[in-house]
Amino acid sequence: MTSILEAESVGPVDVAVITFGGDRFDGTAAAAVHELQENGTVRVIDLSFVRKGDDGGVTTIEADDSEVAGRFAGLADEELDLLSDEDLTLIGEQLEPGTAAVVVVWENTWAAKLVSALSSSKGEVAMLQRIPRQVVADALEAVREGERA
Description:
Layout lengths: L12 E9 L8 H9 L4 E10 L5 E5 L6 H4 L12 H10 L4 E9 L4 H9 L12 H16 L1
Antiparallel strand pairs: 1-4, 2-3, 2-4
Pfam families: DUF6325
Protein name: DUF1269 domain-containing protein
Organism: Nonomuraea soli
């Protein structure tokens, strides 16, 4: 894994806050994230954990300090610590009490070549909209229902 991001070739970067009820991390999503990184779809830049206790108190945990760290080992670039304690506290404050979250910053490496090509041709993405999975699933189901009618 290359440890330095190059401004002219970096793909789009997302921050995902993945919540878990019950104030626990069991680490089962780690295998999927490992697979995405291994096949070149994403590159994990930073990864941390946040918990909001039942009392509303927020605790932040770095990936290397957590009981599930072994499952996430080797994912985040150790030289790039982009999530500040302030960022993590703000995220944690937005969680429901009794909730835990993995906060992951990843580069969409699948798009890096496109970004470079657009940049060299003076092109730019004028709009990008992420459509939630459930909205797509509902639309597909509506199409299927229409075909059956």
